[in-house]
Amino acid sequence: MAQPPILSWEGLGLQQGGRWLFGGPDTGGLDLHIGPRDRIALIGRNGAGKTTLFKLIDDRIEADRGLRKVKPGTRIVLLEQEPDFSGHATLMDWALAGEHPPAAHEVEAIAGQLGIDMGRDAVSASGGERRRAAISRALAQEPDLLLMDEPTNHLDLAAIDWLEDWLGRYKGAFVVISHDRTFLKRLTSSTLWLDRGSLRRKEVGFGGYEAWEEQVYAEEARNAERLDAKLKIEAHWLERGVTARRKRNQGRLEKLWQMRSARAAMIGPRGAAKLQLTVEEDFKSKSVIVAEDVSKSFGDRKIIRNLSLRIQRGDRIGVVGANGTGKTTLLKLLTGEMAPDSGGVTIARTLTGVMIDQQRSLMSPDKTVRQVLAEGGDWIEVGDGKKHVQGYLKEFLFDPGIVDAKVGTLSGGERSRLLLAREFARKSNLLVLDEPTNDLDLETLDLLQEVIADYDGTVLIVSHDRDFLDRTVTMTLGLDGSGKVDVVAGGYEDWAAKRRAATAPAAKAPVRADPAASPPPPSAPPRATKLSYKDQRDYDLLPARIEELERAIARGEDILSDPDLYARDPQRFATITQGVANARAEKEAAEERWLELAELVEG
């Protein structure tokens, strides 16, 4: 029999600023049930209340209505997006503070694997160091339910890989808020969608979320048309825009693949064909940054070694590598901010750059949105034209009504989006983005992908967001810390594939034969094994059985997606949950059995 939830909220409602953030009286409140091994993605736009819901689950704030139930002995740990380190001398002092501190040796053990010194000064620690310290503290508490709010923010690729591996072996339940699509796809098996004050659940991981979202919006549109509710449709302009934007981005992705193919031809081996020479000449004429045999060291450490690179107008360049491998140094060399020790960098005289950094330092909390965008006026210059500030806000997924709100009242994600809106309006032909995806929600990432694709200039992007790079860049510069820079046409996965190929075990060299000896006899071709009657029957029938089990699992998951099912009929919830688990186990066994038989058949 399936185990009951370790935590549930029934009829949850919360007011903020005189309005119901979610679960108002007309909706009956939110119902939420978390099982002991759930792996849940919590999805929703910035401002929907995701972080607030985490605080309600963790009992840090009090709800206005509803009933919270927790299985006795359940340890809930919240990994906050921006924990407060003030008042603590070192990272370890912070980690061991609080009502239920973890054991110091457990914190040290995890911190060692993440490569963070917990004796670091808490105030001067970087964002990446603080994030590693927070992860060390959270995991050392051995939670039964782990709530993670943007866990991959400020982490490098090695740390993200480590965290994914740890969570893959984790025996408890977790709920995660993240903009990192790759992270979510790899780890989650259920999705909670917080949308316009309601909470939906579906027993599919994040990989199936976008299709589900579009199904919901399509059904809403049909219902609105049947009711002739034009005003209702207008009220949902944002959601409609999201769906349309995603479809437009498919066309942009097709264009990206074409650009990557052209780039691969340019950086590949030169051929003798006349066409190749024409492409090369055109390539040189369009170059905006040319690095020739560039090297840079700090002390005895070689940061960049013998890099030669041509960057064209319109290139989208991704820069990847672990923290400390030299990504920022490389950017400074390419943009002329830093001189190389040897070699040279030539930059086109007409290049005008805009830098959007991790610190979001341009956003003064006392300024209004109107002052940030339009210096207090009603119009903003965008490229060679002008747009009304409220219309421009709408393009960046803002409610135009926030035009006179103070920047300090916006969420971290909204401030990041406002900075993007401001900087993309400025005239430039070089855009440098340093970790642009931190604090952004998924819809804003779609928008950023769209804006970058339509940008006329050249883009340099430092990011640890693998999916974002795969959707955005035409070429990737990969740093491994040795000073070598790998130049690969394509995105993160193209670079990762090249690294995997380079580190794969080399094929064993053939032993040179004695010329006087007779050649060895040719090896006999593998012979297929004749199956027994039972094996042959399994081999023939198992594919149909696997398909039948897949349909049964899908039917069960559809029923379990009803968030009210457990409260309404716990016995049915348990029966169906157990049935789905049994079907999954049988499907896995059937797949393994069929693969074994297939190997025998194929010899």
From TrEMBL:
<dbReference type="InterPro" id="IPR027417">
    <property type="entry name" value="P-loop_NTPase"/>
</dbReference>
<feature type="region of interest" description="Disordered">
    <location>
        <begin position="504"/>
        <end position="532"/>
    </location>
</feature>
<keyword id="KW-0067">ATP-binding</keyword>
<feature type="compositionally biased region" description="Low complexity">
    <location>
        <begin position="504"/>
        <end position="516"/>
    </location>
</feature>
<protein>
    <submittedName>
        <fullName>ABC-F family ATP-binding cassette domain-containing protein</fullName>
    </submittedName>
</protein>
<dbReference type="InterPro" id="IPR051309">
    <property type="entry name" value="ABCF_ATPase"/>
</dbReference>
<dbReference type="Pfam" id="PF00005">
    <property type="entry name" value="ABC_tran"/>
</dbReference>
<feature type="domain" description="ABC transporter">
    <location>
        <begin position="289"/>
        <end position="515"/>
    </location>
</feature>
<dbReference type="InterPro" id="IPR003593">
    <property type="entry name" value="AAA+_ATPase"/>
</dbReference>
<feature type="domain" description="ABC transporter">
    <location>
        <begin position="12"/>
        <end position="221"/>
    </location>
</feature>
<keyword id="KW-0547">Nucleotide-binding</keyword>
<dbReference type="GO" id="GO:0003677">
    <property type="term" value="F:DNA binding"/>
</dbReference>
<dbReference type="GO" id="GO:0016887">
    <property type="term" value="F:ATP hydrolysis activity"/>
</dbReference>
<dbReference type="InterPro" id="IPR032524">
    <property type="entry name" value="ABC_tran_C"/>
</dbReference>
<dbReference type="InterPro" id="IPR037118">
    <property type="entry name" value="Val-tRNA_synth_C_sf"/>
</dbReference>
<dbReference type="InterPro" id="IPR003439">
    <property type="entry name" value="ABC_transporter-like_ATP-bd"/>
</dbReference>
<dbReference type="GO" id="GO:0005524">
    <property type="term" value="F:ATP binding"/>
</dbReference>
<dbReference type="Pfam" id="PF16326">
    <property type="entry name" value="ABC_tran_CTD"/>
</dbReference>
<dbReference type="InterPro" id="IPR017871">
    <property type="entry name" value="ABC_transporter-like_CS"/>
</dbReference>
